[in-house]
Design goal:
The complex is a heterodimer of chains A (251) and B (227). Chain A contains nine helices and seven strands; from the N terminus they run ββαβββββαααααααα. Chain A has 251 residues and is α+β, with helices and mostly antiparallel strands. In chain A, the strands form two sheets. Chain A has a five-stranded mixed β-sheet. In chain A, α2 packs antiparallel against α7, α3 packs antiparallel against α5 and α5 packs antiparallel against α7. Classes of the chains: A alpha+beta (251), B mainly alpha (227). Chain B: Keywords: Membrane, Transmembrane, Transmembrane helix.
Chain lengths: 251, 227
């Protein structure tokens, strides 16, 4: 049986990067508990448009949890009150009838607000551009077993590569640290032979860029790992520390 | 190397190694101090304290230890300030307890409280023994060797003051909470962790923190209850 709920929403509104923001309160009613959080936002925006008001700007794209575009800090948690999901995968059944839901953008100096709930996550691309790649053309797909890679290394590299760069780690971290993101991007290459050649240069360059862009340092609270929709492990952060320190001490 | 400490990982590395060093000190400190409760005549502890005060290796380590404390404390302020700058506007609603422990988020506050305890602790014992002296410290002879009666100084404080005894138990608990996060975090920061060792270090860290907290709490409680 379909169930519907009514909610009070407190949403951060900000007209532009330099403007002063404020919370605004909206009511939505008859929201199906089977709908997703973003569908609820769509309904709210339709409502606002019909009232001749400016709709709320928020990021979204694939709506199936693989693109990393949707953000939203919902009721004190990135991607809201559910585990291992992005906001588009969050269902309204996670909320109670009559509940007040607070919706905020990611908060970090390195993620400036563009409008309302949309933040600029170009900083992540800048970090990747600083070294998150292999410089030489490695050709097509190699024959199976042509390059021996241990199963454990392959598994861990694959797990690290599942990072979708959504920024929930930065949003969850009390220091707005991007260490989980950077460590995943360093690990996916450092674990494999193709990436090992440039491992030192990569670790140094990506950490330097991360610091330069104004992300905080890691204090190992582990909040990032819990809030990560892709379950990236903080053991990657230890690997990044190891890679970075090895690179620095061998200079 | 010059700008190593300006990188985020470099800054944390310094916190980590000083923390590990202080943890080694705390183990030695607890071991010697537990002698307090195993000999009510005080001879055992006095011998232990005398050995620590006269041993050349300890004499060398004393200024290093002071430096370790200073670096760990002052540097924590630098690191925290840097991290606060990374989030100029905070959240209206936070639900942190879902994703991280209270201790891990409040290492600075725990550290500050431990610092307050440390100042009190130094004034009560270290300062009196090394600088100002105290009538309680008059020399005793243990095993034909003359030494200061540090046992009397410590035992008298804990026997006579319930308030200070409680303060020392609170101090021990605060230190334990600091170490529950600090222990594994230090290893994580120097890169000594992977998916298996992360779990092991967390367990070892918790056990270590509990031993430290209980070990130091037992001393004032022993004097309060027995005398």
């Amino acid at each position: 049986m379909e169930k519907t709920i009514n909610l009070t929403l407190k949403v951060w509104r900000q007209n532009g990067p330099k403007e002063k923001g404020r919370f605004e309160t909206y009511q939505v009613s008859n929201i199906s508990t089977d709908s997703s959080f973003l569908e609820m936002m769509d309904i709210l925006n339709e409502q606002l448009i019909s009232e001749n008001k400016e709709p709320i700007a928020f990021d979204h794209d694939c709506r199936e949890g693989i693109c990393g575009m949707c953000s939203l800090y919902i009721n004190g948690r990135p991607h809201g009150p559910d585990e291992d999901i992005t906001t588009c995968q969050l269902h309204m059944r996670k909320f109670k009838d009559g509940e007040t839901v607070t919706i905020e953008p990611w908060r970090a100096a390195a993620f400036p607000i563009i409008k309302d709930l949309i933040v600029d996550r170009t900083a992540f691309d800048t970090i990747i551009a600083a070294g998150g790649y292999v410089s030489v053309n490695t050709g097509g797909i190699p024959d199976a077993n042509a390059i021996p890679i241990a199963k454990v290394a392959a598994d861990e590299a694959m797990d690290a590569a599942s990072c979708i760069g959504c920024g929930a780690c930065v949003a969850a971290c009390k220091n707005s640290s991007a260490m989980l993101f950077v460590s995943a991007k360093v690990s996916q290459l450092a674990l494999l032979p193709q990436g090992k050649v440039e491992a030192k240069r990569r670790a140094k360059a990506m950490v330097a860029k991360m610091d330069e862009l104004g992300f905080g340092g890691c204090t190992n609270t582990g909040a990032c790992e819990v809030e990560c929709p892709k379950n990236i492990s903080i053991s990657n952060i230890s690997r990044l520390n190891r890679e970075f320190l090895k690179a620095r001490f061998s200079d | 190397m010059s700008n190593f400490l300006t990188t985020s990982i470099g800054r944390k590395f310094l916190m980590s190694v000083t923390g590990l060093f202080l943890m080694m000190f705390i183990m030695v400190h607890l071991t010697i101090n537990l002698l307090l409760i195993f000999d009510d005549s005080g001879d055992l502890f006095n011998q232990g304290a005398h050995f620590m005060a006269t041993n050349p290796a300890i004499k060398i380590m004393e200024p290093v230890l002071a430096l370790g404390f200073l670096v760990h404390i002052i540097w924590s302020l630098v690191v925290s300030l840097q991290n606060m700058k990374a989030r100029p506007i905070g959240y209206k609603q936070l639900n942190n307890s879902q994703s991280s422990s209270w201790a891990s988020r409040n290492m600075l506050i725990l550290g500050a409280l431990i610092f307050v305890f440390l100042v009190m602790h130094i004034i009560q014992f270290f300062w009196k023994i090394k600088v100002t002296g105290d009538p309680l410290l008059q020399h005793v002879t243990v095993g034909g060797e003359e030494m200061e009666n540090t046992y009397a100084l410590v035992a008298t404080l804990f026997k006579e003051s319930l308030l200070y005894s409680i303060a020392y138990v609170v101090g021990a608990i605060l230190l334990g909470m600091h170490l529950v996060h600090g222990f594994w975090s230090a290893f994580q920061t120097i890169g000594f962790a992977n998916q298996i060792w992360l779990k092991r270090l967390k367990v070892v860290g918790a056990v270590f923190a509990i031993i430290i907290a209980i070990g130091f709490s037992v001393i004032p409680l022993y004097f309060q209850i027995k005398f």
